[in-house]
Amino acid sequence: MATLKKKLQGLVAATLTPMTENGEINFSVIGQYVDYLVKEQGVKNVFVNGTTGEGLSLSISERRQVAEEWVTQGRNKLDQVVIHVGALSLKESQELARHAAEIGADGIAVIAPFFFKPWNKDVLVNFLREVAAAAPSLPFYYYHIPALTGVKIRAEEVLDGIQDKIPSFQGLKFSDTDLLDFGQCVDQNHQQQFALLFGVDELLSGLVMGATGAVGSTYNYLGKKTNQILEAFERKDFSSALNYQFCIQRFINFVVKLGFGVAQTKAIMTLVSGIPMGPPRLPLQKATREFTDHAAAKLKSLDFLSTADLKGRNLGACI
Ligand SMILES: CC(=O)N[C@@H]([C@@H](O)[C@H](O)[C@H](O)CO)[C@@H](O)CC(=O)C(=O)O
Description:
Bound molecules: the ligand CC(=O)N[C@@H]([C@@H](O)[C@H](O)[C@H](O)CO)[C@@H](O)CC(=O)C(=O)O
Protein name: N-acetylneuraminate lyase
Strand order of the largest sheet: 1-2-3-4-5-6-7-8
Number of domains: 1
Pfam family, one: DHDPS
InterPro entries: Aldolase_TIM (IPR013785), DapA-like (IPR002220), NanA (IPR005264)
Number of helices: 13
CATH topology: TIM Barrel
Helix content: 40-55%
CATH class: Alpha Beta
Largest sheet: 8 strands, parallel, barrel
Radius of gyration: 19 Å
Subunit structure: Homotetramer.
Keywords: Carbohydrate metabolism, Cytoplasm, Lyase, Schiff base
């Protein structure tokens, strides 16, 4: 049985994996990264080695070391450290799951295998069950991200009866925009026993539909702003929640048009936090100087960046 833990809720930062210019992992800044999330962004949960963390581009040994560093540095500072342990090889995934349990992580998550793909719900759940069984004491989350895995089995189908197969099942990270599917997951979750975490940073729609929390890349540097959405939603001030959402979207929409992914997230995080995230690993390509300059200008115009070097306050600023 999974150890009873407080339900994962609120914002969860999908962490980046800091790298040196030579492409090695820069473990030395993870402690600083933890402090930044907690103190500057008000984010106390992390999702490590996922999409944003380039988990699938790291070796197994690197994934173990990154997980270990987050757990160590996060001790007594972070509420929960969830480790993504998905891999194409079931054995590797099980090894990572066991390791997460040994180091004292708070949960594990797994994506659908995406080379040889499960062709139906039962096959997918069998795969997930085998991984979960390697760390039965850890809360288990299914990481649904069909656009990247190509596995289009609906999340509501996966959830149906899943706890009978996976006793440690604790929730879903829903990285998709199909609100019918997400709504069905919420509707099924009658006893509210599962954490249903929205994985797309246009968060308000997920909250309205019943998300209990959210995992995302932008919470690394817009956590404080996004927490304002959660707070307004909590006090039923929907108009303010929408204003905060639109304000954040002005930035997301801007960078999406420039071409936005993990490399660009690394550049933005470096800019906003001052912590060097370095380049991504191939096949991803480092963000261009042009992208970083445009993103910096937009962040300043929205007052998302330190105003110390601002000459005058922009009237369109989101504060
Ligand atoms: C495909 C992707 O990278 N999605 C991001 C989002 O946070 C995304 O950057 C955001 O919604 C941008 O609109 C997260 O869901 C990724 C994530 O949670 C992870 O790193 O595991």
